[in-house]
Structure formats: C-alpha cells, structure tokens
C-alpha cells in the first residue's frame, strides 16, 4: 500500500501549492477538524454534533497539548456550537458568487484554486477529525502516520451502507 501512497503523493505534488503542503513542517500539537454540511444536510449525511464532541474529547484525553483548527463549508453553524468555541482557527470554504444548480443534488460554485489551497493547508496537520468526506479523508490518509490520532465516523453515513474509510490505526467514533 505504501507504493500507492507514494504514487498518489508524487502525482498530486505536481501542483506547486500541494507540493508546498507536503513540504511544510507538520503541526504536531494541532488537530484538523473537518465539518461538511452544505450538501450533506439535504441527504441526511451530515454528522451529529456528538461525533465531534466524542472525537475532540478522545483526542484531548490522549494529549492535553493538542489545539484544534476547523475546516468547514458551514461557518455559521460551527460558530454556534459550544464544542468548537475553543478552536484556534476556523477556515471557511468560500463560494463563488454564483451558485447554479446543475441538477437537484449538485451545484457549481466551489472555487478550484481555493479548494487546492485548502487541501494544501490540511496537509500540514498530523492529527485529524475526519468528517465523512473524501476531501478530509485524503488529507488524513496521505499525512497521518503511526503517531497520529485520527478519528472517523462509523457508520460513514447513517442512512447508507457506505464503507467507513480508514487506516488500521485510526479510531472509529459512533455516528449517531
């Protein structure tokens, strides 16, 4: 599996912004929290606040030094949640001015350059609370190591039989 990881890193590192993310020093005493809600609410795939509470408490119990940064597409919701009030930084996903529906479930409007910059920034963390999104999964998959603390939801989606994406040493947290 390591050769696949090396191939993926080599391939996506052709982008200079992502390459910088891989070259940067890991933020040892930080954990990245990913909160995806915008399109997931409609499908009832969003994670309950209890997933984040349990994940944060689990990480705090393993290391009192760890601070948290949040990456989200729903900054207003995050700011209203007490559990996130001690976050050092909140990095909201910006949208293009025009959000046009392609069909009932998909919208155009995410800015490609901003998405790449966000992913590069996510690569600077050693510890992760992975929301049920492949975006956060890939950052954690490519950057975590045996010393990382990584939590993922189980089940990945409450109303779907989607496999929980994780490495063997990652911790599953109940997705109520």
Mean pLDDT: 88
Strand content: 25-35%
Residue runs with pLDDT of under 50 for 5 or more positions: none
Shape: globular
Content-based structural category? alpha/beta
In angstroms, what is the radius of gyration? 16 Å
SSE sequence, one letter per element: HHEHEHEEEHEHEE
Tally of DSSP helical segments? 6
Characterize the largest beta sheet: strand count, sense, and whether it forms a barrel: 6 strands, parallel
Distance between the termini: 31 Å
Helix content: 25-40%
Q: How many DSSP-defined strands?
A: 8
Strand order of the largest sheet: 3-2-1-6-7-8
Entry summary:
This protein has 176 residues and is α/β, with parallel strands linked by helices.
Keywords:
about 25% strand, 6-stranded parallel β-sheet, 6 helices, alpha/beta, about 180 residues, two-stranded antiparallel ribbon
Q: What report would you give on this structure?
A:
- The chain is an alpha/beta fold.
- The protein has 6 helices and 8 strands.
- It has a 6-stranded parallel beta sheet with strand order 3-2-1-6-7-8, with helices on both faces.
- Strand 6, helix 6 and strand 7 form a beta-alpha-beta unit.
- Helix 2 packs parallel to helix 5.
- It starts with a helix and ends with a strand.
């Amino acid at each position: 599996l390591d050769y696949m990881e090396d191939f993926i890193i080599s391939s996506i590192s052709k982008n200079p912004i992502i390459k910088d993310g891989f070259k940067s020093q890991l933020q040892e005493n930080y954990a990245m929290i990913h909160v995806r809600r915008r399109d997931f609410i409609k499908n009832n795939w969003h994670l309950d606040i209890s997933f984040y509470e349990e994940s944060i408490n689990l990480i705090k119990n393993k290391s009192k030094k760890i601070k948290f940064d949040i990456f989200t597409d729903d900054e207003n919701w995050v700011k209203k949640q007490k559990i996130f009030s001690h976050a050092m930084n909140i990095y909201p996903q910006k949208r293009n001015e025009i959000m046009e529906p392609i069909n009932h479930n998909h919208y155009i409007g995410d800015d490609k350059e901003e998405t790449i910059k966000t992913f590069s920034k996510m690569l600077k963390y050693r510890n992760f609370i992975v929301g049920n999104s492949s975006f956060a999964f890939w950052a954690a998959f490519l950057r975590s190591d045996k010393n990382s603390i990584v939590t993922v939801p189980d089940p990945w989606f409450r109303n779907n039989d989607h496999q929980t994406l994780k490495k063997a040493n990652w911790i599953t947290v109940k997705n109520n």
